[in-house]
């Protein structure tokens, strides 16, 4: 058995190599027609039709592109420090990266998902998961800034996340790795039966989007890989793929690939919500960070939360079922009607599609095939809607165009395959260059996809771009799917490894995009709202500089009386009230990044001068014709000097 599996895996790797070469030779003849070039051409000064938010994978960030052009507009810092925008470096945003493990300035971000109203994308917020130190972040799509991060306790490898229900009631986090709950010192070999997997339902406040863990469902110790919400008729349910139902803890590529079928866990969250609202579940001690950025103070605060509500699925009969699904399924995708649940079995020859209606009937008729740790397992045949026969090798993810078609990526055979819901026939296939992971149709996780384009996100690019040393770019590919046949239009490089993406028409976001922060709304405790308010204040060895910027000077621009060993905080307010006029500031020898301050905003960096002298600072963002004159000096005296504290602008310090 094990040997057979090993040879299967070996064969699969050969196939990867084969298909890649095969594709490479095709790619030369794959030169695009001029009509393809026209379809992606967005003339200078024109706007793209869609936003695409592509996860940064191991960069920990989220990048913003236009479709169809593939142009990169912004990298939004989320889980990783970003010196360009001072995120995680300035005093205001450092608390965003606080966790129960302390300051964690990196994560692995996989699945962005946009908020919804009535099953349609509403363009208010976008959520994304941190996979490594389990977290979910919320980005405000009026500022394109990360405004909230919540850590997920009892979790490890927050992978089946962060998908949003159709009225943004919940954003969901499911653990990839099961662990002891609560954590404790125990032998790894005792995994089976003792480790557990938490599925977390995090409520979203409809007005402000604030996140709060409503409950965690403590499930058997499988790996919960991906998930999607029910919608329409299946609204109120959530579906999670599992693998490693073998509950192995070593040599997983073999030991977690033994069972012919793993499960999709179907969770009736409405039922559990009702149970919890009636006082069900138990509060369990926990320790997790909740970090919130306040737009009025332009500052984040981090609060450690000390308990979480956990629910044992056996206490809520009828709330959780297992649907047998071949074989180590990865993607768990629900079609726009909410009827079909696609389990993308990585090691399965066929693609399995479950029927929500049949699932309800099986539950109704109490047709149960067995149980796993007391959770009922339904019969495979009772819930099966159909199979797509041998569509390709290594299915990962499926999206829908809203016109009755599904599109599945195949990692090993490196292609996107289009098939029909209901008849399960394959109608088209197009190669990917190479080894595609996720794909994205704008509005994909909703009742209303915009089935004009699909973006395939590829793991390997090899010969597609100019070489850049051993590390070559990851890449996305854009296909036109408006016709019967898919047409490859464009390759474009991505930041980090693109996993999932989310997209929507630009018109949903553009009109709400903020142009500046109003100075009169600035409640930062160290703001200087005019040049008259600027000052330098000493408090022991700490010095606070209340500084302003406006084209083209700092106030003050000469400071004396700072000493070696001081902690100097520069609190810099940008007095500009015009669109697109940030100023930057940096100080020689500061052990942190520059600041990039938006109009009306205040940001702070810390400088600890170590050397006596007269040291310059300057504006880092080219803001006017006299940007190069936007500079100043700080005089640093010895630690025991008596130089009086003074500051000025436009006059000599006396
Ligand atoms: Cu398939 Cu993390 Cu969604 Cu990558 S995962 S591909
Ligand atoms: Cu301010 Cu350059």
Automatic annotation (TrEMBL):
Q: What InterPro entries does UniProt report for this protein, alphabetically? A: Copper_CuA, Cupredoxin, N2O_reductase_N, Nitrous_oxide_Rdtase_Sec-dep, Nos_propeller, NosZ/Cyto_c_oxidase_sub2, WD40/YVTN_repeat-like_dom_sf
Pfam families named in the record: nos_propeller
Q: Where is the signal peptide?
A: 1-24
Q: What would be one Gene Ontology cellular-component term for the protein?
A: cell envelope
Q: Can you tell which superkingdom this protein's organism belongs to?
A: Bacteria
- Offer an example of a GO molecular function term for this protein: copper ion binding
- Give the protein's recorded name: Sec-dependent nitrous-oxide reductase
Q: Where does the protein end up?
A: Cell envelope
EC number in record:
1.7.2.4
Q: What class of enzyme is it?
A: oxidoreductase
Alphabetical list of NCBIfam families matching this protein: nitrous_NosZ_Gp
Which of UniProt's keywords are assigned here? Answer: Copper, Metal-binding, Oxidoreductase, Signal
């Amino acid at each position: 058995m094990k040997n057979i599996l090993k040879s299967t895996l070996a064969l699969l790797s050969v196939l990867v190599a084969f298909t890649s070469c095969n594709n490479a030779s095709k790619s030369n003849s794959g030169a695009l027609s001029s009509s393809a070039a026209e379809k992606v051409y967005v003339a200078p000064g024109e706007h793209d039709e869609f936003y695409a938010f592509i996860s940064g994978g191991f960069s920990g960030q989220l990048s913003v592109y236009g479709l169809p052009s593939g142009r990169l507009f912004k990298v939004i810092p989320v889980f990783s420090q970003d010196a360009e925008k001072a995120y995680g470096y300035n005093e205001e945003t450092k608390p965003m990266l606080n966790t129960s493990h302390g300051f964690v300035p990196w994560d692995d971000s996989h699945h962005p998902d946009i908020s919804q109203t009535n099953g349609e994308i509403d363009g208010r917020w976008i959520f994304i998961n941190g996979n490594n130190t389990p977290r979910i972040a919320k980005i405000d799509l009026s500022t394109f800034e990360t405004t909230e991060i919540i850590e997920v306790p009892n979790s490890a490898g927050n992978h089946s996340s962060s998908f949003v229900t159709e009225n943004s009631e919940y954003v969901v986090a499911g653990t990839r790795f099961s662990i002891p709950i609560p954590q404790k010192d125990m032998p790894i070999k005792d995994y089976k039966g003792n480790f557990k997997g938490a599925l977390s339902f995090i409520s979203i406040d409809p007005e402000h989007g604030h996140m709060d863990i409503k409950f965690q469902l403590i499930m058997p110790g499988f790996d919960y890989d991906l998930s999607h919400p029910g919608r329409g008729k299946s609204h109120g349910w959530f579906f999670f793929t599992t693998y490693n139902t073998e509950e192995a803890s070593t040599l997983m590529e073999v030991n977690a690939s033994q069972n012919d079928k793993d499960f999709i866990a179907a969770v009736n969250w409405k039922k559990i919500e009702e149970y919890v609202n009636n006082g069900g579940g138990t509060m369990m001690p926990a320790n997790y960070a909740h970090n919130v950025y306040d737009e009025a103070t332009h500052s984040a605060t981090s609060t450690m939360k000390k308990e979480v509500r956990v629910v044992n699925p056996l206490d809520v009969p009828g709330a959780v079922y297992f649907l047998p699904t071949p074989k180590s399924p990865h993607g768990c995708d629900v079609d726009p009607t909410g009827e079909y649940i696609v389990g993308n079995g990585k090691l399965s020859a066929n693609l399995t599609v479950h029927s929500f209606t049949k699932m309800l009937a099986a539950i109704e008729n109490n047709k149960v095939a067995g149980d796993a740790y007391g959770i009922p397992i339904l019969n495979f045949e009772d819930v099966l809607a159909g199979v797509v026969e041998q569509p390709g090798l290594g299915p990962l993810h499926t999206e829908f165009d809203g016109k009755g078609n599904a599109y599945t990526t195949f990692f090993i055979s490196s292609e996107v395959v289009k098939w029909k819901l209901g008849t399960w026939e394959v109608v088209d296939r197009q190669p990917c260059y190479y080894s595609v992971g996720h794909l994205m149709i704008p509005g994909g996780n909703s009742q209303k996809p915009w089935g004009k384009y699909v973006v395939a996100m590829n793991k390997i690019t090899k010969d597609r771009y100019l070489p850049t040393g051993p590390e070559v770019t990851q890449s996305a590919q854009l296909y036109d799917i408006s016709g019967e046949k898919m047409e490859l239009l464009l390759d474009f490089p991505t930041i980090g490894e693109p996993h999932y993406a989310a997209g929507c028409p630009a018109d949903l976001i553009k009109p709400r995009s903020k142009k500046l922060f109003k100075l009169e709304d600035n409640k930062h405790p160290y703001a200087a709202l005019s040049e008259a308010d600027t000052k330098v204040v000493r408090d022991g060895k700490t010095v606070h500089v209340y500084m302003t910027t406006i084209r083209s000077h700092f106030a003050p621009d000469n400071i004396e009386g700072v000493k070696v060993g001081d902690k100097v905080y520069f609190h810099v307010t940008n007095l500009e009230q015009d669109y697109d006029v940030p100023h930057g500031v940096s100080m020689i020898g500061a052990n942190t990044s520059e600041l990039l301050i938006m109009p009306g905003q205040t940001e702070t960096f810390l400088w600890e001068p170590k050397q006596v002298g007269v040291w310059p600072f300057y504006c880092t963002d080219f803001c006017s014709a006299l940007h190069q004159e936007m500079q100043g000096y700080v005089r640093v005296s010895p630690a025991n000097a008596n130089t009086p504290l003074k500051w000025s602008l436009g006059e000599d310090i006396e």
